[in-house]
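User:
Care to share a sequence and structure tokens?

Assistant:
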Amino acid sequence: MSQTLTATGRATGPAARLVLSGDLVRPAELTVPDLLCWPQHAAEVSFECATSGTQRHRFAGPLLHDVLADAGPGFDPARRKDRLRFLIAVCGTDGHRALLSWAEIDPDFGRAPVLLAVSIDGAGLDRAGPQLVLPQDRCGARHISAIRTIRVDGGYTPWA
């Protein structure tokens, strides 16, 4: 896991910004207050961490799918399978990275309830920035604290 799971960054200063980029019709910069505009979902999560043992937390925030769908991913919506070629790269301010496929979060395929958490254990993440939370993961390795960028990519070079 990239950082200890706490609501850090409550000090004064500008709100953390998350950049959505890549194959999107509407790339954006978002803050935690911006993410509060989407429907909020809660998840009780237990992560088995190699370095710090089991951690249990309650996260709340919008679904990653909802936020990215609103940004207009560049796939052809009339071609259901076109979505399967899209990857989602998430990077935290500490350099920790994770990669997901669009199919994991898409309601027509994996339907994983991946959150862009805006709070942890009831404490807001306004200054620290949102956290990527994958409630279905037993290990917390794909949990990203203080997300800096999310890049949607459907145009990577195919393997041949």
The first helix runs from residue 32 to 35.
